[in-house]
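pasting Twitching motility response regulator PilH for the record, 145 residues
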Amino acid sequence: MRCAAACCHAVGAGYNRGTFWGKHMARILIVDDSPSQLMGIRRIVEKLGHEALTAEDGAAGVEAAKRELPDMILMDVVMPNLNGFQATRSITRDPTTSHIPVVLVTTKDQDTDRVWGMRQGAKAYITKPFSEGDLSDVISQVMKA
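structre below
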């Protein structure tokens, strides 16, 4: 497993086969059709010491989830081919991927969107724009659950 935090060896941190400062290093799949959003979320995920995998639309996200079996998925909603609600439903209802928690990360901020997303199987919902701290908190909460 590769080290996702560039500084961990340089400062002598306790990186040892999948741990980062005593915490489990998760494999997190980020699904977003915006290259800038994908890069920004990836930067935060890796800064937190996790491994980031990416997919550029919902259909690719579903396939990556089945192939990679990540520890968590951060899913945009508004995407071509298969939107995030549809992809979340597909992932959470498939026996091979149903154990993977999905967090919807989206600009859709209406209560009805939030309710619908949770009904599709999402474990959490965060709206863009968000702070690094907000995303870090959601990842930590979902990983503990």
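Confidence is low (pLDDT under 50) at residues 1-22.
Helices lie at 35-47, 58-68, 84-93, 111-119, 132-144.
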